[in-house]
């Protein structure tokens, strides 16, 4: 199977799967959502960190000479700073926290333990769609860079992206609904936004195919993205509850995320061999 076909399939699979999973998740009762979403966030944390430290970064280092490793490391650092700035400018904040100030118009209140979002109609929704489309486009470029480096790495990177997109899409879907969008329009806009991943993958394949010298730096940016999302967005949410039972559950699901990516790396390696 050609690299182009693999890139299109895996970029489309991750984006559409996350949107469909989010839409099905919102059909559950609020109490069920509150129980399941933290587990998804924990799972995504383990998947992202494993994808970054056990997949992307080792491959980035392996693709350059020893003398260039410091510059690849610096790219990881600069990438984390870049994603911080982009999050500030483009309102990328995933709505996992109880006080999601990055969307400006939103406020969260709690009644009987349930979380509600109130926004001015459509304003927050427009920012969500714009920010998510840009985020998905960048994910597509980075997935393409991973596939161009190694098929195994591309598969693992796609799975890690899908793991963190599901909790994000749940938050985005909820904001669109509370911003005045119907369920049909919210689903449509989320699907269209997810297709930006395919566009990014195609552009990455076209522009990076003959530029293998810069692929390690794109892998470094992908690792920066994974680390930033896990550390800046997901882990702070997990710290909101500190009781022993919840903490043990969080550790268990983080380890499950680690195990998934680790196992998929092994399967993909055998498949490629």
From TrEMBL:
Predominant location: membrane
Coiled-coil regions, chain positions: none
InterPro entries the record matches: ZIP
Topology relative to the membrane: Multi-pass membrane protein
Gene Ontology MF term list: metal ion transmembrane transporter activity
Transmembrane region(s): 6-28, 40-62, 68-86, 187-208, 214-235, 247-264
Subcellular localization(s) per the UniProt record: Membrane
Keywords, in A-Z order: Membrane, Transmembrane, Transmembrane helix
GO cellular component: membrane
PANTHER family reported in the protein's UniProt record: ZINC TRANSPORTER SLC39A7 HISTIDINE-RICH MEMBRANE PROTEIN KE4, ZINC TRANSPORTER ZIP13
Entry protein name: ZIP family metal transporter
Species: Methylomonas paludis
